[in-house]
Amino acid sequence: MKKFTLLLIVLGILICVIALSIFTVNEKEIAIITRFGDPVRIVTKAGPHRKLPGFLEKVNLLDKRIHTFKPRPLQLMLKDQNPIIMTCYVCWQIADPLDFFQALGTQNIAEEKLGDMVNARLGNVLGDYILSQIINIDADKVKLSEIEKRILMESNDQARNQYGLKVVDIGIRRITYPSTNTEAVYNRMKSDRETEAKKYRAEGGEAASIIEAEADRQVSEILAEASKNAEITKGEGDKEAIKIRGEAYSQAPELFEFLDSLDTYRKILGRETTLILSLDSNLFRYLLPEDREIGKNNVEDL
Amino acid sequence: MDIKQKTAAVSTLLNLLLTILKFILAGFSGSLVILAEAWHSLTDVVTSLLVYFSVSPRPNKPVEEIPERSETSGNGVRTDADIDWNNISIENWMSLAIGFIILFAAIAVIYKILYTPFLLIASPFVYGLFFLFFAGCSLVVSIFEIKMGKKYDSPALIADGLHSKADMVGSLIAGFTMIALQLGIDRIGINIDKIGAVIIIVFILSFSLETFVNFWSSLHGKPGWRDRITSGLIASAIDRHTWKLLFQRISHSSNWDQLSVEFRLRARRIFISLLALGVFLVIFLSCLTTIGPSEQGIRERLGRLVNQGYPLNPGLHLKLPWPLETIIKVDTFTIQSMNIGNISNPSAVALLWTKQHGTEESFLSAENYLFYPYIKLHYRIKDIFNYTYSFRNPEEFLDNASHALLTEIFSTKIFTDIVTVYRGPMEEKIREVVQAKLDELKSGLEIINVNTKDIHPPISVAASYEEVIAAMQEKEQKINQATGYSNSAIPEARGWAVKTRKQAESYVLEKKANAGGEASRFLNRMAAIKAYPAITMPMLYRDAIKENLANKPIILVEPGASVPDVWLNSGRPIFLENQFEQ
């Protein structure tokens, strides 16, 4: 019985030792094995691995995947003295596990250091650019990707050599103005809008005037044309009428003169007309018979 | 048929009847705990049947002393270590087969427990009463079997009685679960139906485990676990005697040696069976894994990826127990969403420019304007392996890359374009360019859709934008008014023109007609006058004189007199008196 118990204890210890001498690394990790603090091996292949048991060798696991983080937003001065706030993001990955492990150790420290570095590069690089190279309606003049590339290259040079990590990607997440400038921007936006509103109103007036003037012109044209045509028509009518009458009257012009005179008298002698007649006019030749012979040469006088 | 056989037969039939009833009720109610209990009762039927066989005499073999305690190893203790496969009794094979059937039934019920949403069970109180009645039946069967077993010295019958007692506990669990449901325990978020089902599943699993152990033991002719341990355990737990002993142990705090042998045996049995059951359960459950309906899985064996390119699909999967294999489950089918720019407040009724409706992080447009975009990205995980192994947090990368592209787009477009015509192209560009970047860095993500919810200027400027719209309206209004004037003046003029033309035409007609009339009159008169010129001319003359001079004042003047000073003004004295006097 005692033998059996002893066997059990030995077996238990053996199992413990074996368990402490095996460690697994998965596909996301890199392991650095330190023997009393001295890094002796780097394991990058996933799977089970051997080590000296327990405290003799320590396994330090590092995440080999790409990490993404945002350094703090940064206010900068551009070359043309425009202040601007930029937020960028950084994707990084462990390039040299041992360097990384010795220089930085953990992800948090790495990101803090990397953040300092990237923000410093950002400041340096942006000092070479003016606002119209950052925002511009002409897309060819905007140098954002060039800026990103420069920061990436400059950060990478340092990071690879001394920090054991490589910067995979850097991008500018957001560009904005400091809050003191935003009010000015708002006011400019407002005044732009007011200008635009005024322009629309003036354009309305202009368009309305053009339309009205054109209408007036068309009206005048129509009216003038109509009057002209009416006069022509009337003239032609008059011509016709005169012609008709002329043809008739020319057959006996003296008779026409006689009849027309009578008609004229009828028309011009109104009710109120006072006539002053000479007593020796033909009409009264019979009125004073002592002076004249009544009925003599009557017809010839006419 | 002796009395033991009869007892076993009767209890088998009773148990069968109860089981059938339970399955029927399970079908009606849809309750998981009832279904589990029905399967548990089936184990009872199996046990009773095995007891029946074990107490029966064998007709083909010489009747030997039947070791009744091992009801599953019916052919008794074997001293030979070699397994004689031909000599394994039919009961043994049967019990093994049933052990497997019960095991698969248990797995099926576990699967159901995992994937069935909570069902509303109609009138659970009635089912509860049924199960309390079934519990009573099981108790009766149990008392009957134990009594007969004691009377005729048959440990198999006693063991079966204990199992019936365990079944009674199962029925009680089902019954009380139903009554708790009636009382509305589901309303406080406890799915008691599933909890009850899990407890009973543990009973069933213990049964199948015992079956396998007994089969193994009987193959090697070793006694093995003769009793139904779990049922014995449960029966002990509800036995008054156990608690009495336990109470004595505690209250007298007496020595372990002073305890009765019975208690010590019982305590050891409880401990060993609990331990065995626990280990079995842990190993069993860690060999199973389920991948949810919208998930996929990665299998890592000792950290190494073993199914590269072949993700585990939804369903039940076997795996090596921890820590040999790990399954990483990722939700790959669900379309997820992410806010780009600003996050709109879910409580905002409408997204209006003049009201703040979310976080306000300003962006800069090409003409130096500040504004707030609200864009929602729909995405999905398209490659579980890249998703898991390339990025520590792929979503964060998606968020950053989308923001960066957005900033780049905004830096070259004017605000009014971004708000109006450039929305669609912008969405398309984000989808294409960000997707290219996601693929380049093997993030395993796929953008399904980009939705621009809202882009608006600062609230304090929004009113100015509305003012512009008002001015545009005003412009339109002025143009409309002018067009209206034009539309009325021109037709009016046209009407006047027509009128003038018609008037001229009627003038012409009138003139011509008059002229014609006059000419005709003249010609007629001429004809008449020419016939008698001597008479007609003076006549006409005098007619005219009469007509014209009648009733008119006439002043006759002597031709020899001097020219009179006249006023050609009627109604007044024509000659001045003094002139007359002269």
Protein described:
The complex is a heterodimer of chains A (302) and B (582). Chain A is of the alpha+beta class and 302 residues long. Chain A has seven helices and ten strands. In chain A, strands 6, 7, 8 and 9 form a four-stranded antiparallel β-sheet that branches. The radius of gyration of chain A is 60 Å and the shape is rod-shaped. Chain B has 582 residues and is an alpha+beta fold. Chain B has helices at 3-29, 32-55, 90-115, 124-151, 155-182, 192-219, 229-237, 240-252, 261-286, 384-389, 394-410, 415-419, 423-440, 459-531, 533-549, 577-581, and strands at residues 288-291, 295-301, 304-305, 315-318, 325-331, 336-341, 363-364, 370-381, 445-456, 554-557. In chain B, helix 2 (32-55) runs antiparallel to helix 5 (155-182) and helix 2 packs parallel to helix 6 (192-219). Chain B is elongated and about 195 Å long. The N and C termini of chain B lie far apart (192 Å). The interface between A and B is large, with 117 and 115 residues. Strand 10 (275-278) of chain A pairs parallel with strand 10 of chain B.
How is this fold's topology laid out?
The complex is a heterodimer of chains A (302) and B (582).
Chain A: H1 2-21, E1 22-25, E2 29-35, E3 38-43, E4 47-50, E5 57-63, E6 67-69, E7 74-77, E8 83-94, H2 97-103, H3 107-126, H4 144-163, E9 165-176, H5 179-249, H6 253-268, E10 275-278, H7 298-301
Antiparallel strand pairs in A: 1-4, 2-3, 2-5, 6-8, 7-8, 8-9
Helix pairs in contact in A: 3-4
Chain B: H1 3-29, H2 32-55, H3 90-115, H4 124-151, H5 155-182, H6 192-219, H7 229-237, H8 240-252, H9 261-286, E1 288-291, E2 295-301, E3 304-305, E4 315-318, E5 325-331, E6 336-341, E7 363-364, E8 370-381, H10 384-389, H11 394-410, H12 415-419, H13 423-440, E9 445-456, H14 459-531, H15 533-549, E10 554-557, H16 577-581
Antiparallel strand pairs in B: 1-4, 2-3, 2-5, 6-8, 7-8, 8-9
Helix pairs in contact in B: 1-2, 1-4, 2-3, 2-5, 2-6, 3-6, 4-5, 5-6, 5-7, 7-9, 11-13, 14-15
